[in-house]
Amino acid sequence: MRAVWLRVRAGLRQDWRSPLVLALITGLMGSLVLVSLAGARRTDTAVPRFLAWSGPTEGQVAGVPFATLGRLRRLPGVAYSERGAFMLMAASPAGRPADARPGQVTTWALIDTPPQARAIIVAGRRPNPARPGEVMINEAAARVLGAHVGSVIQLRGFRPSQVMAVLNNQALHPTVTLPDVRVVTIIRTPTDLANSGAPSDVIFTGTGSLFLTAAFYHRYAGSVGNMAGLSFHLRRGLAGLPAFRAEVNRLTGGRAQFEMGSDDAIAAAAVQRGTGLQALALLLFGIIVALAMLVIVGQSVARLAHITSDDFPVLRALGSSRGQLIAVALAPGALIAAAGMVLAIPAAYVLSVFTPVGLARRAEISPGFSFDTSILLGGAILLTLLLTARAALAAQRAAWRQADPTAGSRGRGSRLARWLARRGFPSPAVTGVRLAFEPGSDRSPVPVRSAVLGTALALAAVVAALVFGASLAHVIGDPRLAGWNWDVAVGNPHSGDTSAETIPKLRADASLAGFTATALGYGIIGGQDVPVVGIQTLRGHVAPPLLAGRLPHGPREIALSGGELRALHRSVGGLVSARTNRGVVPLRITGQVVLSPEITNEQVRLGSGGVMTLAGAGLLSRTPLPVNVYLVRLRHPGDAAAIARLKQEFPGVVLPAVPPPEVREVKGVNGLPLVLAFVLTLLAVGTIAQTLVTSVRRRRRDLAILKAVGFVGRQVRASVAWQATAIAGTGLLVGLPLGVAAGRWAWTLLAQGFAIQPVAVLSPELLLAVPAVLLLANAVAAIPARTAARTRAAVVLRTE
Fold it and tell me: What distance in Å separates the CA atoms of residue 646 and residue 506, rounded to the nearest whole number?
């Protein structure tokens, strides 16, 4: 192996620039791959880690005396618990009238807080439990109140005798005057991750929370209505619940009220669906970059193997075996792969500061740098092995070509070059096309086919990324595609039936072009529990958009979303059984509908649920359905005055177009297609540049002959420019249609997964790719062209 090492060392001394550049490119691309894979895992686990770190609970106990809650905390099955109280108060910025509307900012008192109950501190410091004037608020409350650290909050309380009246939504005003408090902390909990894009003036989205201290509770609990409770986490989890419940009932005489689950766990489960999608997008980004690296960097490594094979005849004559020749050709590629990955690991660690992405970034409990050992080290080793295997394949081919010296010169030449010659095109154009598509007749020909293929694939990936990104931006900007086919929704989906009060007011509003009443229910359809929205058009035609068929007209018809159709294995026009108040009846599936989750406050996921008439939905429900949300279309879309009147008439329940969670979460990674397009564009340009440099080096004899027969420097430069244009043009001819088809396919696949309208957007800017790529190719050809023009014909031909 000493002979092999001596040859490799001599080759590196002779030309160290190309391996160094390739190692840097490999390190850059490898770092993008590694940070994408590690970032995908970090993104996918951010919310579960946040939930586990914040001290999850299995449930709450309420309805028992405050002193008894202290005894429940000390039961042997309890790992940790938190005593708190729901305080019936209205909070508003100091100097403004107290806002008595329930649901916007909920006030809580934290009486006993265990160390496990943690939250991300966005600003400020934790309040001192012994100071009644310090409070902590979450981000939603900060938006609603317009508060920050140091803001003064005015509190007004309801009397203890008013507790049941307030809980029954009676219109009462708080009359208990309390001292103002100061915000010292803004926190983020798992609950704050949900409804992050909701408007602050809508009472049922993104409820804000204000947390009072234990000192405040002990001082004012007797004068303000409140309900104390205990949140618990058991040592054995849910397995210990029966024993814990039995002990609680023994101590309270069976009067305790249990509420299982927690808002944090419910919110985390909902958010995890979106962050999982963001992680998948990051994973796909890393895989695509890895494939591009294996194709493009692999081609460059193969070119080095072919260049190294120039000395094979001499080495063979000196007694080198076939294995030693393969090792000589393999060594540069293996060294480049190893050096590139050595550079990629620290670079990926530095880039990890930009992960996780999207919504998961708000849930990250340890922001900053992260070293994922298994992915960074394991991924680097795997990429090194793959690139080395590519170099080994090229080394074997080089050794085989040495055994058959005529293998590289058996081509018939470029048909396009012959066609141009017959049509009388200038000599530089014909020569440039020959240089682009003919490997040459030297003993070590130029691998032009792999260069053209790599350029075409890179450009196809660029176009696909641009098509996908434009389609993604379109669905984010057009709420109709995700089911929002009206201007605003009026009403609270958690309230009782409001039709008697709301419908007359809407009928009297002349600025409305139409409105539809809705009610949310659930039914057993096809053996599955399916959320169903009952609708009744009252003016005009305002309804969720359809992808196929029509809306139901009668009580035994239903339009289902794409997700439900897949789950039930049904199609439009078919029948599905449903359990109603009158027994099991067949329902005709009249269409495929896109139902916006926002009209149900995200109780229905995008791509799920169904639509029926109000009468039909009522048949599926065991209890009467409350009609409480109205889909409103204005005569003049975006009429600010009309929307302001609606907000004044229906305070706190006028919801504008809000993207559903799935679209909001995809929005968090909508920049990835552009980043991918930029990276792949650089790779395509790098492929062209590497091909031109290699071609100029390997075609020194051809260039010398051209200069000997009369080519001047300007014509040689033009030939190299035509070579670059031919390679880029062929890449565009293949890459544009292939990229458009791939981008449309990828977007259609994602849209069908969401069960939304699969509208792929072909931006007119794609046509700019043609001149842009050609100009860029000619720009990178300038340096190789200048080098070719300086070829000294006499010196080169003398050495042949």
Answer: 9
- Distance, in Å, from the CA atom of 204 to the CA atom of 492, rounded to the nearest integer, reads 7
Q: How far from chain centre, in Å, is Cα 113?
A: 35
Q: What is the DSSP string of 253-312?
A: TT--EEEES-HHHHHHHHHHHHHHHHHHHHHHHHHHHHHHHHHHHHHHHHHHHHHHGGGH
First to last CA, the chain: 31
Closest residue by Cα to residue 395 from 296, 297, 307: 307
367-376: burial string, b at 16+ Cβ within 10 Å, e else = eeebebeebb
Cα 552 from chain centroid (whole Å): 35
Among 724, 716, 703, which residue's Cα sits nearest to residue 786? 716
Half-sphere exposure of 304 (CA within 13 A, CB side): 34
How many residues are listed for the chain in this entry?
800
Residue 657 neighbours by CB under 8 Å, 6+ apart: 479, 484, 487, 488
8-state DSSP, 610: E
DSSP state string for 103-164 = TSEEEEEEEE--TT---EEEEE-PPPTT-TTEEEEEHHHHHHHT--TT-EEEEEE--GGGHH
The closest of 220, 188, 257 to 89, measured between CA atoms, is 220
Give the containing element (helix H, strand E) for 520: strand 512-525
Contact between residue 493 and residue 601 where contact means Cβ atoms under 8 Å apart:
yes
Longest CA–CA separation in the chain, Å = 109
Residues 279 and 538: their CA atoms lie apart, in Å, by 43
Q: What Å distances lie between residue 384 and 39, 294, 388, 724, CA to CA?
A: 20, 10, 6, 30
Nearest 5°: CA angle at 594, between 590 and 597? 130
DSSP 58-92: SEEEESS-HHHHHHHHT-TTEEEEEEEEEE-EEEE
Question: What are the structure tokens assigned to 264, written together?
Answer: 């944090």
* Nearest-10 Cα torsion for 489, 491, 493, 495: 180
Residues 112-130: tens digit of each pLDDT? 889 988 999 999 999 999 9
Q: Which of 626, 591, 620 is nearest to 524 (CA)?
A: 620
pTM over 0.90: no
pLDDT digit string, tens, across residues 742-794: 888 888 887 877 777 777 787 777 777 788 878 888 887 787 777 777 777 66
